[in-house]
Design goal:
nine-stranded mixed beta sheet; 2,3-Dihydroxybiphenyl 1,2-Dioxygenase, domain 1; 17 strands
C-alpha cells in the first residue's frame, strides 16, 4: 500500500511493549440493518463494493441473513435478523441501522479474549473453535461503547469468510468499484463526560495509547462544540477517534447523533483511497451525497496548506477539503448520513504524508453539518 493511501505506523519500543496482543488489522465491520438484501444493493451500486459471500436460509442459517461485501481491504458484513427473538432485533428497535461489530484479525483469539477480560472488558462470546469442511475458524467477542462489540477472529486455517457462509465467486455486475482501499479510522460518539472514560478503557483494556486530542476550542462554531481524543493500537494500524459533546449555544452533531441513535455508537467510518478525485467523482456519479462547504473555503486554501498536487478548481467542484501538518497534507470529504436517522456517515480520505485528522477543516466542516441539522430541525 502506498504512502498516499495510509500513513505508515510510527511504532516506538514503548507502544510495542503495550501491544500485548498484536492486532493484524480490522477484519470486518458488521452492520445490523433492516433489510440486508436491499442495503447490499446500495453498497454495491453506489459505493462500489463487491458481493463475495452470503449466509442465510439457503446455507442453513435459520435466524439471520448476512451479506459479505469487499473493496480493497475493506470488508463489510450486512446482517438482518430473520426471527422476532433474535438479539439483533433489539438493536434495530433502539438504534435503527448501524454498526454492531468492529472485528479485529488476531493471531491468538483465546489470548486476546483472556487479556482484555482480565483487564476489565465484558465478555460477550467466549473463545469458540468451529471446524467444518473448510477448516478451523476461531472467534470471540467483548463489549465496547454502547451496544458495539469488538470481536476477535483468526481464520488463517480456514477457507472462506466464516462457517455458514457461501462464497460468491461469479462476477458482480452491479458493483462498480470506486477505489476505496482500506479503513483509515473509525469514529465513535459517546455521551457527556464519557470520552475520557473510554479513552482510559482502550488504554487499559486494549493496550492502545493516546494519539492526539482536540478540545472545544479546536472543534467549535458559533453554535456548537465537541471534544475528541484519538486512541491507537500499539502498531498504530488501528485508530479510533472518540467524540463527546461540549457546551454550545445549540445542539451539537454529537448530541443529535446520541438523540437519534439512542446512545453511543459508531458515527463514521473513514476509508482511504489512493486518488480521491477519481473516487469522489465515481461515488457522486453513482448517487452518494456529500456535504459541501462554501466556495470561499477555497480562496485562501493554498496559502493555508502550501503547495498541493491537486487542482484547486477540481477540489472545489467536488467539495474536497485539504489540511496539512508537519508530515505532509491530506484530503478529505464526508458523506451525508446514509441512514434515514441522522446517524452513520462515511469519510473518504487520501493522505499525502499527513498523519493528522483535518483540524484546519473542523470549522468549515461543522458549519456544513449544522446547516444540515437545521434542515432536519435538530440544531
Amino acid at each position: 500500500m502506498t504512502q498516499d493511501v495510509l500513513t505508515a505506523p510510527l511504532v516506538t519500543p514503548e507502544t510495542a511493549e503495550k501491544d500485548f496482543f498484536p492486532i493484524r488489522g480490522i477484519d470486518h465491520i458488521e452492520f445490523v440493518v433492516g433489510n440486508a438484501k436491499q442495503s447490499a444493493h446500495f453498497y454495491r451500486s453506489a459505493m462500489g463494493f463487491k458481493l463475495t459471500g452470503y449466509a442465510g436460509l439457503e446455507t442453513g442459517l435459520r435466524d439471520r441473513a448476512s451479506y459479505v461485501l469487499e473493496q480493497g481491504k475493506v470488508r463489510l458484513i450486512l446482517t438482518t435478523p430473520l426471527i422476532p427473538d433474535h438479539p439483533y432485533q433489539e438493536h434495530l428497535r433502539m438504534h435503527g441501522d448501524g454498526v454492531k461489530d468492529i472485528s479485529f484479525e488476531v493471531d491468538d483469539v483465546e489470548r486476546a479474549y483472556r487479556e482484555t477480560t482480565k483487564r476489565g472488558a465484558i465478555g460477550v462470546q467466549e473463545p469458540t473453535e468451529i471446524t467444518d469442511e473448510n477448516g478451523t475458524y476461531f472467534t470471540a467477542a467483548i463489549k465496547t461503547y454502547g451496544d458495539t462489540l469488538h470481536s476477535f477472529v483468526n481464520r488463517k486455517n480456514y477457507r472462506g469468510f466464516a462457517p455458514g457462509f457461501r462464497p460468491i465467486t461469479k462476477e458482480d455486475t452491479i458493483a462498480r468499484p470506486t477505489g476505496l482501499a482500506a479503513v483509515d479510522h473509525i469514529v465513535g460518539n459517546v455521551g457527556w463526560n464519557q470520552m475520557n472514560d473510554w479513552v482510559k478503557w482502550y488504554e487499559e483494556v486494549m493496550g492502545f495509547h493516546l494519539f492526539v486530542s482536540f478540545d472545544d476550542k479546536d472543534i467549535s462554531t458559533e453554535y456548537s462544540a465537541l471534544m475528541s481524543k484519538v486512541v491507537a493500537s500499539g502498531s498504530e494500524k488501528i485508530k479510533f477517534p472518540i467524540n463527546e459533546p461540549a457546551t454550545g449555544k445549540k445542539k451539537s452533531q454529537i448530541e443529535e447523533y446520541i438523540e437519534w441513535y439512542k446512545g453511543p455508537g459508531v458515527q463514521h467510518i473513514a476509508m482511504a483511497t489512493g486518488n480521491i478525485l477519481e473516487t469522489v467523482t465515481k461515488l457522486s456519479d453513482q448517487g452518494v451525497e456529500f456535504l459541501r462547504v462554501p466556495s470561499s473555503y477555497y480562496r485562501e486554501l493554498q496559502d493555508r496548506v502550501g503547495v498541493i498536487k491537486e487542482p484547486i478548481d477540481e477540489l472545489e467542484r467536488l467539495g474536497i477539503l485539504v489540511d496539512s501538518d508537519d508530515d505532509g497534507y491530506m484530503l478529505q470529504i464526508f458523506t451525508k448520513p446514509v441512514e434515514d436517522r441522522p446517524t452513520l456517515f462515511f469519510e473518504i480520505i487520501q493522505r499525502r504524508g499527513a498523519r493528522s485528522f483535518g483540524k484546519g477543516n473542523f470549522k468549515a466542516l461543522f458549519e456544513s453539518i449544522e446547516r444540515e441539522q437545521d434542515l432536519r430541525g435538530n440544531l
